[in-house]
């Protein structure tokens, strides 16, 4: 080979770098074939891709002076130099095609061309050949250096083809995801709309019946209707909250809020639920501090309520749930700690995903659809905050979230959630 080794190295390095920056496959492959021609001092080069259905090759790229004549030609697997390299998974140099039966002469006949020498290397991806690169008509003989160059560039070609396949699959998958996401959003919107009215009627009439009944004979049945209808309403609201956030339809109505008061009031609302399981709810707040912050008080109450509900659900009778509020220079931090069953390490990265549920036996035991934590996460993020969990299986969990203060001065008077 007469090519300067330094120039060869520079050319190979260039093509290697182009693999990571070139987005147009055709442009890259043309550049690759041009480099093959230059480095092997050949008259031309081509890329043949294997067709698994017809079990032969078609020209993916050919020199411009052959394009019209051989564009539709198929090269057989048996009876061609390309086929030999493909089947044997190794390069082959034929320096005199006139004395080699493997040379497929139909291409030359159609193009009115004479291929007197040929170098072929298989394009191999994950141990499987997918095509062949050929260089032809070197003035001198093809040698081992030429073979090494062609093998190297054939491997670059395999990576480029694979990258293109993966990119097409990703684009196709993204399109499918977009379609599914649109269908999901439409389904949630329609379902929520259609269920709200009958659920409202069920709750209204059940509450009315409860007030009409003079004795307590049917209280248990009516309470069951109200409780389960309320649960369905809660599920619908949770689905809608997450979907509205993801589609940009959610609104945050921020006002000056005493986070200490939110913690106090939300904990009171869960006192009965905790008492039923003999679980103690404790609060740790900085003395004399209201923890003022500019947030949507109703949404923060939902965040905290979902975390407390989750803590109570996964804490055994006799346990405790500790609520803590802290103030930092630029944000307030709220944490909900329990000494319950804890979360397996493998589940922690997914715990805030919608519909994700920890191990099956825990799901069956405690119920739920895996929406509460995802709702808490999206509502925290709507405020520009962050939520996370620290947990050890068998020892309990600590769910924490922070909310930016926004430098809001406290008002003189306040109600539980707003100014």
SSE layout:
Layout: H1 5-21, H2 25-40, E1 44-51, E2 56-61, H3 67-70, E3 74-76, H4 81-88, E4 92-94, H5 106-111, E5 118-125, E6 128-136, H6 144-212, H7 219-246, E7 255-258, H8 259-269, H9 271-276, E8 280-284, E9 292-295, H10 297-313, E10 320-327, E11 331-338, H11 360-366, H12 372-382, E12 386-392, E13 396-404
Parallel strand pairs: 8-10
Antiparallel strand pairs: 1-2, 1-6, 2-3, 4-5, 5-6, 7-9, 10-11, 11-13, 12-13
Task: Describe the fold and architecture.
The strands form three sheets. The protein has a six-stranded antiparallel β-sheet with strand order 3-2-1-6-5-4, sandwiched between helices. Strands 8-10-11-13-12 form a five-stranded mixed β-sheet. It is elongated and about 105 Å long. The chain has helices spanning 5-21, 25-40, 67-70, 81-88, 106-111, 144-212, 219-246, 259-269, 271-276, 297-313, 360-366, 372-382, and strands at residues 44-51, 56-61, 74-76, 92-94, 118-125, 128-136, 255-258, 280-284, 292-295, 320-327, 331-338, 386-392, 396-404. A hairpin with a 3-residue loop joins β12 and β13. The longest helix has 69 residues, at 144-212. The chain is α+β, with helices and mostly antiparallel strands. α1 (5-21) packs parallel to α6 and α2 runs antiparallel to α6 (144-212).
């Amino acid at each position: 080979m007469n090519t300067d080794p330094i120039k060869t190295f520079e050319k190979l390095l260039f093509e290697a770098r182009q693999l990571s920056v070139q987005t147009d496959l055709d442009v890259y492959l043309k550049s690759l074939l041009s480099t093959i021609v230059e480095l092997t001092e050949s008259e031309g080069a081509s890329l043949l891709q294997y067709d698994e259905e017809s079990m032969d090759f078609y020209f993916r790229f050919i020199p411009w002076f052959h394009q019209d004549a051989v564009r539709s030609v198929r090269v057989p697997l048996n009876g061609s130099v390309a086929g030999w390299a493909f089947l044997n998974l190794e390069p082959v140099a034929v320096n005199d095609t006139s004395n080699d039966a493997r040379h497929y002469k139909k291409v030359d006949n159609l193009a009115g061309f004479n291929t007197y020498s040929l170098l072929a290397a298989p394009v191999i991806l994950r141990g499987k050949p997918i095509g062949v690169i050929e260089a032809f008509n070197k003035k001198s003989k093809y040698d081992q250096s030429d073979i090494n160059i062609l093998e190297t560039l054939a491997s670059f070609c395999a990576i480029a083809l694979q990258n293109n396949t993966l990119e097409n699959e990703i684009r196709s998958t993204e399109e499918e995801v977009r379609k599914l996401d649109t269908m999901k959003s439409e389904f949630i919107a329609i379902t929520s709309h259609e269920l709200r009215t009958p659920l409202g009627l069920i709750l209204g009439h059940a509450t009315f019946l409860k007030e009409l009944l003079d004795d307590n004979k049917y209280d248990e049945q009516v309470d069951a209707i109200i409780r389960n209808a309320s649960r369905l309403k809660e599920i619908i609201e949770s689905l809608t909250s997450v979907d509205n956030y993801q589609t940009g339809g959610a609104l945050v109505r921020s006002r000056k809020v005493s986070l200490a008061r939110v913690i106090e009031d939300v904990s009171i609302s869960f006192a009965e639920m905790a008492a039923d399981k003999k679980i103690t709810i404790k609060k740790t707040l900085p003395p004399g501090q209201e923890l003022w912050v500019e947030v949507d008080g109703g949404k923060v109450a939902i965040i905290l309520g979902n975390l407390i509900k989750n803590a109570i659900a996964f804490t055994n009778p006799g346990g405790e749930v500790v609520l803590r509020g802290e103030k930092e220079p630029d944000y307030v931090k709220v944490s909900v700690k329990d000494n319950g069953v804890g979360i397996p390490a493998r589940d922690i990265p997914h715990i805030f995903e919608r519909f994700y549920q920890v191990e099956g036996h825990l799901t069956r035991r405690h119920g739920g659809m895996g929406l509460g934590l995802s709702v808490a996460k999206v509502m925290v993020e709507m405020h520009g905050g962050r939520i996370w969990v620290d947990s050890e299986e068998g020892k309990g969990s600590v769910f924490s979230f922070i909310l930016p203060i926004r430098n809001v001065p406290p008002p003189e008077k306040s109600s539980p959630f707003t100014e």
